[in-house]
Task: structure prediction
Amino acid sequence: MASDDHHHRDPPVDLNENGDSPNHKKQKLSLITDAEIRSEFSHHDPSIARINNGSFGSCPKTVIAAQNQWQLKYLKQPDAFYFNHLQPSILRSRTVIKDLINADHVDEVSIVDNATTAASIVLQQTGRAFSEGRYDKDDAAVMLHYAYGAVKMSMQAYVTRAGGRVIEVQLPFPVTCNDEIIAEFRKALERGKSGGHKVRLAVIDHITSMPHVVIPLKELVKICRDEGVDQIFVDAAHAIGSTNVDMKEIGADFYTSNLHKWFFCPPSVAFLYCRKSDKMLDLHHPVVTHVYGNGLAIESAWIGTRDYSAQLVVPEVVEFVNRFEGGIDGIRTRNHEKVVAMGEMLAKAWGTNLGSPPEMCSSMVMVGLPPRLGISCDSDAMKLRTHLRECFGVEVPIYYRAPKDGDPVTGYARISHQVYNVVDEYYSFRDAVNKLVNDGVTCAVLSC
Result:
């Protein structure tokens, strides 16, 4: 870009000072039919039972078409795109997200590539506080044992290296109730405060990835406030589109969720909510450009020449989800009901159990696999996943859990349900596992 002035232009005239567009009239769309759903996702490989929406999400054709229009708009005249269209369009997407998550102001919403980027932004701020002496050495940051691997590594890179202690909340799995999680979280906070130290940051998953469990988030946030934790960051990579997300109800300082997992955006786009406070001034995008210091939302909206189109189609995604009965709330309710039903069907077929009660699941469920498969380590889980994909056309993540308390189930499958899924895909998974068991195949004989 040739000038910084582009980043300081006033918002377009149809947006008020809060980023709203009160005069915009939405087109009335008819409810989507089953045939139209199949058409929207007809680009999916028909030979694969794709019951793993949780890993990478899915994007319908109409949204892909809208993205292509933005890409062509850029390629047609890049200068006009960057100077006249990019920033107002990102602001429009941020405004839509503000309304989706019930934030107070559009300034609290930044758009970033993914939840991993958002975690780096927050944890770098914490690391600077330790490095600059604003936090005492050996003050603590607390996170769940089942935090996403990239977040754990970011904790090591930014917090531990700067002198902070990182304490992991040991969570049970399978889990039977929220009280088990709450009790372990309280223990971790006590360890963080031992020796007169303070807990400076709590990193809490809204929905853990592997194993999958919906965390009692509001309860944990309240505990943090009661115990004097300085800041709360919620890693909610799977949340938007699969569970209720309301910033006023949750009350965290920071909250991030991907929009390409369960909200039908193309990869990759996520939001980072930062509750308005003086500490917002010390949040910065990891990619430093000439707009550094203009606020995180502006910094995030320009990180050099790249494809921004995924960030610009959020309004079109809202139009897509509103074609379903009940909009996104209706979608997530139906996905939850269907994935629980499929999980219970599989558990009954294999004589196993779910990894948590249905009320602690979202649009994913952990289902115990037959012990006779012989899953004895993480590599066994990966070998089984690869075998299911290559030999049976089933795509599903497998989780290894070390045996304990005499429970013979050591492998769990994480199944997802999205609007494009059909029951035959889960039957294919059931039948594939039954065939392996009946044929006496174990992970020990599977090739890598």
User: Anything to note?
Assistant: The domain at 327-437 is CATH 3.90.1150.10 (Aspartate Aminotransferase, domain 1). The longest helix spans residues 78-101. Confidence is low (pLDDT under 50) at residues 1-26.
